[in-house]
Specification:
- About 45% of the residues lie in helices and about 15% in strands.
- It is built from nine helices and eight strands.
- Strands 1-2-4 form a three-stranded parallel β-sheet, with helices on one face.
- A hairpin with a 5-residue loop joins strand 5 and strand 6.
- Helix 2 packs antiparallel against helix 3, helix 3 crosses helix 5 and helix 3 crosses helix 6.
- The longest helix has 26 residues.
- The protein is globular, with a radius of gyration of 18 Å.
- About 10% of the residues have low confidence.
Length: about 220
């Protein structure tokens, strides 16, 4: 919160849109779950859920600090990352299956493992038993401190195809729908391609999610 206040004071009047946390999934999963990133810890899943919860509280404290300094008209967002499903066949059944798979917390990295807690104050029914056990211990006062972001940024690096039964039917295939990014074969971050089907699915899934529509965060409002 102190850091957010310092940044807000430095950029007040020059920046209208702030983002508090980039890729909380990487912080929680890679930093405290697998140990691939700093601080390199390998904690049980219930403790990783606590990290996600604290990140939600950290975003909320930073959002309040930024708005106190820069004014309520300043927009403050957050930028989660995750995988998204896209349908094997673009039918109503296929889209529904891809929607369910995209927000299924058991599939892997998902956007809503962070956003559901922050915005909706609960975890999806598909959450693991460890996350559910942690959720049962949350002080109700913590939910009162959660601040809904003014906007969302979504970092989408990959996706997966599902059939009409929401089962993975393949990994991302090689196809003309891949866009090469960066000056050479890959970007500076070594992510060689942006894949179009998951990007299309991101737009569709988040526009149709009722909870995000009620919060004004689905993207439908600006359509």
């Amino acid at each position: 919160m102190r850091y957010a206040r310092i940044i807000a004071q430095r950029f007040k009047g020059r920046v209208r849109n702030f983002m508090t946390i980039n890729e909380p999934q990487c912080i929680a999963q890679l930093g405290y779950g697998t140990g691939n990133h700093a601080p390199g810890w390998k904690l049980p899943e219930e403790k990783v859920a606590l990290v996600y919860h604290n990140l939600c509280l950290a975003h909320s404290a930073a959002q309040r600090a930024i708005k106190e300094v820069c004014g309520k008209e300043t927009l403050v967002g957050v930028v989660p990352c995750g995988s998204l499903a896209y349908p094997e066949k673009d039918t109503p059944e296929g889209r529904e299956a891809a929607y369910r798979a995209s927000f299924d917390l058991k599939v892997g990295w998902s956007f809503n493992v962070f956003l559901d807690s922050l915005i909706l104050h609960h975890y999806d029914d598909s959450a693991s038993d460890a996350f559910k056990r942690f959720a049962a211990t949350i002080d109700p006062g913590d939910w009162d401190m959660m601040e809904t972001p003014d906007y969302l940024g979504l970092n989408i690096y990959q996706g997966f195809m599902v059939n009409s039964r929401a089962r993975k039917s393949s990994a991302i295939p090689a196809s003309p729908d891949r866009l090469q990014v960066g000056r050479h074969a890959g970007s500076a971050a070594l992510w060689p391609y942006a894949h179009l089907p998951p990007l299309r699915s991101a737009h569709l899934h988040h526009r149709e999610r009722p909870e995000l529509q009620r919060q004004g965060l689905s993207g439908r409002e600006g359509a």
